Amino acid sequence: MIRRLAVLASIVLLATPLAGCVLPEPSTYPEEMPTEVEEQPTLTTPDIVEGMFNVAFVYVGPIGDGGWTYAHNDGRLYLEETLDNVSTAYLESVPEGADAERVIRSLARKGFDLIFTTSFGYMDPTATVAEEFPDQAFVHISGLKKNDHNFANLFGSMESAKYLAGMVAGAKAAEDGSNRVGYVAPFPIPEIVRLGNALTMGMRRTCSECVLDVRWIFSWFDPEAEREAAVSMIDAGASVIVTGADTAIPVQVAGEMGFTGIPGNSANACDAAPDACLGVPYWNWGPTYARIAEAVMNDTFEPDDLYLGVPDNIVGFAGFMEGEVPQPAVPDWVIPEVDDVLQQMRNGEFTRFDMFTGPIHDNTGNLVVPEGESLTQSDLEGIDAELGTLLGRPGCTYCMGWLAEGFVADAQVPQ
Amino acid sequence: MTGSTVPGVVPASRLRLRLEAREQPGLPTHLAVSLLLLLAALLLAGTVMTVAGGNPLDVYRSMFGAAFGSRWGLNDTLIKMVPLALASLGVALAFRMKMWNIGAEGQLLMGALAASGIALFAVPPDMPRLPALALMAAAGAAGGAAWAVVPGWLRAQFGVNEIISTLMLNYVALSIVQFFVYGPWGERGFGLTPMFERHTWLPRLTDFADQWSALRGLTLHLGILAVPVAIACLAILLERTKFGFEIAMVGDNPDAARYAGVRLRRTMIIVMALSGALAGLAGMSEVSGVVHRLLEHISPGYGYTAIIVAWLGRFNPLAVAVVAFLFGGLIVGADEIQSAGISSLLQGVILFVMVSGNLLIRYRIRLRPPEAMR
Q1: Range of lowest pLDDT (A62-76, A335-349, B10-24, B271-285)
Q2: Would the pLDDT of B365 be above 90?
Q3: Mutate which of A4, A16, A27, A107 to disrupt the B interface (most B C-beta within 10 Å)?
Q4: Which residue of B has its CA nearest to A102?
Q5: ipTM score of complex
Q6: Would you call B167 and A15 a contact, using CB atoms and an 8 Å cutoff?
Q7: Greatest CA span in chain B, whole angstroms?
Q8: Cβ A20–B344 below 8 Å, yes or no?
Q9: Dihedral, B148, B154, B159, B162 alpha carbons, nearest 10
Q10: Which member of A393, B201, B251, B349 lies 3.0 to 4.6 Å from B45 by CB, making a disulfide possible if both were Cys?
């Protein structure tokens, strides 16, 4: 009896998510945000400051993820530094399920003037709360919905940065002689398929023999799955690992095994494994956040589908931006070519639409996009006719659900 | 002494802690010990917060304010209470019989899945709200019950340890939900189903704002009504019926119960079915009352928390509901604290102290010289 109870008690404690199994180490924060520690207490509650313009952020992960959420928090800090009279607050690790709507509504009730929600799963909760609080502005990242008075969605052309990443990865795989790159893919959704296709096309530009292997891990943030995916692709012969998930672990793993990789999302992601890292396609939210906050302050905010490109400075490729030096592992011969393409992207001469222009074949040899045709924004986002009607946008013709030539022939988008 | 003392054995000359059973711990003892434990937990967590550079008093004040300090906070706390209370009542019922059902999480998920299936595919668009909700509730309860009957039957028939089987079925249930939300019921690969039609939503207070404007913005749904009903039914079942007496008897001494003519297997299976049905209803009320769709993370661990809630409520229906309310407040309040690690730490410390200190209700601590122990 006692023993049964002991077993029960230990299982309960182990299995209870409330029992605190996801504790990020508080000791990492001071290192990552040295400027913040002195001004801001470690423990905070998100409250507005009277007389200031108050902006709140809802994060899906911990700031310490070193990736997606870290990049948004960088944007928040930029916003606070750049604009006077702005006060910001955040809530991290907010699950996308039942709690999201409550958390967002609670921020709105407190009176935040502008609320950014930074994960796809917050789309409907944000839309609902935005309707209830028409005098406050809401911006949802990576979504599709908007309304006509206070709710916009925002995203950017990460595919451009991934294309550059593909160029470097292909060059490195060619130098390694493996001619094989691996892609850790979170979810079989249009965004991830699009980024994978951009990666493939970049890779084929510098290495026409290279193929791209892929593992779908069905999670944005799952360090163990990310590790396993990387190991599995290295075992299958890949020598460069590019990850679309949140952490830099796949690159660390590649480094430990003597190979290289490309993490994502946050400009400093190479710090996790500097020797193995070839660069980072990263999000640069700060300038855009500041622009939106100014627009809301000046009453010029117009809700829209905001999809920004490289000229808007919303994405970058770390190691190749102004004043930066490429990581040591990048093959020298490819650097001028990457610089050149990046310059074209900046000038608006090589946009995502130029990148996705026919002829494009899929990985089984079928012609997907005929010569002379370019994908539309709806094609890129995989918005089918039905969804398009709902959103008031045109439906797609070459809907983003295919893998471009360069993916290994048996790779598929899981149904 | 050869120097090879077993670690943990105290030298014989010292005083030793000793536990001594209390006679019939009454309600005052319960309350006093619980309050003391809560205080100890807050102190412990407060120490950690101080080390982390925060002011625990400020933190506690804003947590309390967020959870109970306004009608919005109370609204949110009550919403959290509904799934916790229903699942905890189910767990408490099974625990009464010493059936250690720790599968409330899986039963809740299966209830949510079944109710969602009905909402998405079986309810015609012109069906009135009441029968639609009744169908969903029935499906939710049935889904949860089915998921609990399996380990119940295995235990009754073959003596399979229900702790292990119910726990494992939690993971199976999660995988099944994942299969449906990413697969056949999914929308664009995002791990969520389409939004349900309006008439399958449990009415919320704010829906009546046209008649009573004070209700505007209150999102509490009528699933809350299931809580008092469940408390009353369980109280009557346990205290006033022959079946309730049999449950207590099986819990105290199964052999004696069998000699007294209790049909052990039948009782086990029925109790598990009821226990699972309550968890299933919790799942139904979440999809129909709060989220209005099925998604992978429909439960942030309600089923596991329910075990602790049931435990702290001493398996008494009314007490369990009160604890569920307080836990709802703890969850709502803790969400306010940044960084997020601190709030889970706080919740963890409170749980740990409360659960491990719980034996103080039944035992008192005495310091005795070792001679006196023998």
Answers
A1: B10-24
A2: no
A3: A16
A4: B76
A5: 0.81
A6: yes
A7: 84
A8: yes
A9: -30
A10: B349
Would you call the peptide bond into A331 cis, given omega within 30 degrees of 0 as the criterion? no
B323: distance to nearest CA of chain A, Å?
15
Q: CB B348 to CB A44 under 8 A?
A: no
In sequence order, what are the residues at sequence separation of 6 or more whose Cβ sits closer than 8 angstroms to the Cβ of residue B343?
B334, B335, B336, B337
The tokens describing A88, both together, are 């910001």
Q: How far is A225 from chain B (nearest CA, A)?
A: 16
C-beta separation of A245 from A226 below 8 A: yes
Q: Which class for A176: exposed (0-12), middle (13-18), buried (19 or more C-beta within 10 A)?
A: middle
CA dist A113 to A49, A52, A248, A289, B239, Å? 11, 9, 34, 13, 54
Q: Is A89 left (phi over 0), alpha (psi -120 to 50) or beta?
A: beta
Let me know the angle formed at the C-alpha of B308 by B112 and B162, rounded to the nearest 5 degrees.
70
**What average pLDDT does the segment A351-370 reach?**
94
Q: Is the pLDDT of residue B154 over 70?
A: yes
Domains plus CATH for chain A? 48-156+285-309 (3.40.50.2300), 158-282+319-391 (3.40.50.2300)
How near does any CA of chain A get to the CA of B6, in Å?
22
List, for residues A202-239, the tens digit of each pLDDT value. Answer: 999 999 999 999 999 988 888 899 999 999 999 999 99
Which residues are within 8 A (CB) of B274 and not within 5 positions of it... i.e. 6 or more apart?
A: B90, B93, B145
Q: Give dist(CA A172, CA A332) in Å, integer.
A: 10
How does pLDDT run across B244-275, given as a tens digit for each residue? 999 999 988 889 998 988 899 999 999 999 99
The DSSP bridge pattern shows strands A114-117 and A151-156 to be: unpaired
Q: Residue A373: what residue type?
A: E
For A61, which residue in chain B has the nearest alpha carbon?
A: B340
- When mean pLDDT is compared across A406-415, B54-63, B261-270, the lowest value belongs to B54-63
Q: Return the residue in A1, A5, A10, A12 with the most chain B beta carbons within 10 A, the one to mutate for interface testing.
A: A12
Residue indicated by tokens 């409170």: B350
- What is the Cα–Cα distance from B352 to B130, expressed in whole angstroms? 42
Category of A348 on φ-ψ map: left (φ > 0), alpha (ψ -120 to 50) or beta: left
Of the residues B339, B343, B358, B359, the best mutation for testing chain A's interface (the one with the most A CB atoms within 10 Å of its CB) is B339
pLDDT tens for residues A5-44? Answer: 455 555 544 444 443 333 333 333 333 333 333 344 456 6
Question: B301 contacts in A (CB within 8 Å)?
Answer: 16-18
Of B72, B298, B336, the CB nearest to A98: B298
Cross-chain Cβ contact B301/A8 below 8 Å: no
Distance CA B270, CA B275 (A): 9
Q: What is the CA radius of gyration of chain B?
A: 23
Among the residues of A211-267, which ranges form H helices? Answer: 223-235, 249-256
Shortest Cα distance, chain A CAs vs residue B256, angstroms: 16
By CB atoms closer than 10 A (0-12, 13-18, 19+), residue A384 is middle
B-chain residue closest to A60, CA distance: B340
Mean pLDDT along residues A366-380: 94
**Residue of A16, A22, A25 lying closest to B304 (CB–CB):** A16
pLDDT tier at A397 (50, 70, 90 boundaries)?
A: very high
**What's the pLDDT at A134?**
94
Average pLDDT over residues B319-343: 86
pLDDT at B189: 66
